[in-house]
Amino acid sequence: MHGTLIKALPVAVAIPILLAGCGRGHLPNPSGTFEVTTVDVAPLLNGQALRVTRDEGERVTAGDTLIVLDTQLIALRRAEAAASRGTLRARHGVTAEDLAQAQRQLALLETTLERTRKLSQEGSATQQQVDDLSAQRDVARSRVAAARGQLAVIDANLQQLEASLAVFDRQLRDGIVTSPLTGTVLVRALEPGEVATVGRTALRLADLAQLDLRIYLEERDLDLVRLDQELPVMVDALPGQKLTGRVIWISDEAEFTPKNAQTRQARAQLVYAVKLRVANPDGRLHVGMPAEVELR
User: In what helix (H) or strand (E) does residue 59 lie, and over which residues does it extend?
Assistant: First the structure.
């Protein structure tokens, strides 16, 4: 195993350039570093990893198979439950036929009993015949009730088995872990042959086609930015080039400047976080790269 300890990505915290005492005639160029939202992919069941299809740095498309777990035991249990379901369905058919037969016999006895009672009133049948038919009718009623009870039990067992089969089907699907997004594998912490654990990160993904740049502005400079506004972005690693960043978020609450600001005086100031999204189709930008935003 290359190690199950997942190395965290560089924390992209912007270091603002706060110009003390500057007037609005000299607009600040706040700086920050690029960051990205990562997605940790973890299996939903325990099992030995048979295949891990992507390595670090490789591209993935949403829906691609990333991990295949050993689900043979689950498949066997499902087959066992399916066999039990087949047996119960056969019993259900036999019991349903018994019920139908008992209902027909009951209907015949009730008809015969009613006719015999009329004949008894006319003197053409004895009371003993009436009593015998009444006893037979009661037995037929008991058979009908017993068959209905057996059917109810079988139906309940079938419903329970159907639920178990649904659980097994879900576990079999969970044995194949797919990519939730289109992006790049940043961290691989699971190798074939290792036992995957529920909730433990196996792969870390991110969409590097666009990165976010977080900067911090003083309250007096907030009116220089608005949502969906496009602003020039200068990247230290790309001298002489200006990229375009779109403002996607402006914090509603002020916060103290991050601790890694350059001076104690700067850290004591209240600032507002602003996030810009910068397209990165050719992959020239990387997480942690410093950049500046040109305010207009």
Answer: strand 59-60
Residues 49 and 194 in one domain: yes
Record the tokens describing residue 29, joined without a space: 């160029």
Decide which of 157, 174, 191 is a domain's last residue.
174
Q: How many domains does the chain have?
A: 3
Residue with tokens 């178990």: 164
Q: Whole-prediction pTM value?
A: 0.75
Helix (H) or strand (E) segment spanning residue 107: helix 72-122
Assess if residue 2 is contained within a domain. no
Q: Is 190 left (phi over 0), alpha (psi -120 to 50) or beta?
A: beta
Q: Please name the residue that has the structure tokens 């502005």.
A: 217
Quote the CA–CA distance of 81 and 103 in Å, as a whole number.
Answer: 32
Q: Count CB-CB contacts under 10 A for residue 71.
A: 21
> Averaged over 258-268, what is the pLDDT?
54
Sign of the torsion angle spanned by Cα atoms 39, 43, 48, 49 = negative
Structural domain of 81? 72-174
User: Does residue 54 fall inside a structural domain?
Assistant: yes
Residue whose entry in the numeric block shows the structure tokens 């190690």: 3
Q: Identify the three-state secondary structure at position 162.
A: helix
What is the three-class DSSP state of 232?
strand
Say how far residue 116 (Cα) sits from the centre of its chain: 69
Q: Is the pLDDT of residue 41 over 60?
A: yes
